[in-house]
């Protein structure tokens, strides 16, 4: 893996690495991606945010999917790629991980919450859409499964939804601001497993590149931004990153 060695040298030479991960980061953990054949949206249509707000039936369907595990977003374990990124973070090389994923696997691999920016939320818990109160899924499951009670906020009575960002839901302003600041501050922007088609998140690699950072992309398939990158590897993330950041 000569190109993996080149990526290792780029990381070694960098001082402020930002890692940007997409669905491809987690497929090696058994979590299906969104758009490929067999992926989540080929098996079930997304529930748009406005429909969730407007329709009790759609809210009930959303919670049925959540508690049945139909989307397959939670319950997996970090893979070799996650572990390698965690090693780089613990060494101080990786300052920030920007996630398009919602599976919490970077945190599960040992990266602290304050170094992870979740652009599309987190499927591992729920939040009130009115007051922001956090709710654990375990507390909501039994009333829904056993009695059909659609979750409501214990603090204000508002609508509760998994903490993912749904289609049609505004992007989190604070998370996007932190991600843009990280992109502007880095000297190496490393993309792992993103097709780079979902904006505004997909604009972050170009923002970093325009600001003078090197850009490296590891993804099984070509992306529209390959031509802007200093290094492109069309390969599996786990094996590449295991070479880049091997276990001690």
Describe this structure in words.
- The chain has 248 residues and is of the alpha/beta class.
- The protein contains ten helices and nine strands.
- It has helices at 2-13, 40-43, 49-54, 56-68, 80-90, 105-108, 137-147, 173-185, 204-210, 237-244, and strands spanning 17-21, 94-99, 116-118, 121-128, 134-136, 160-164, 188-192, 214-218, 231-233.
- Strand 2, helix 6 (105-108) and strand 3 form a beta-alpha-beta unit.
- The longest helix has 13 residues, at 56-68.
- The chain is elongated and about 55 Å long.
| Strand element count | 9
Strand order, largest beta sheet: 3-2-1-7-8-9
N-to-C SSE series? Answer: HEHHHHEHEEEHEHEHEEH
**Proportion of helical residues:** 25-40%
Q: Largest sheet, described in full?
A: 6 strands, parallel
Alpha-carbon Rg, integer: 19 Å
| Mass-distribution shape | elongated
The overall pLDDT average reads 92
Quaternary structure annotation:
single chain
Counting DSSP H or I runs of 4 or more residues, the number of helices is 10
Helix-and-strand structural type = alpha/beta
Strand content: 15-25%
Residue runs with pLDDT of under 50 for 5 or more positions: none
The first-to-last residue Cα distance is 19 Å
List keywords for this structure.
single chain; 248 residues; alpha/beta; six-stranded parallel beta sheet; three-stranded antiparallel beta sheet; 9 strands; elongated
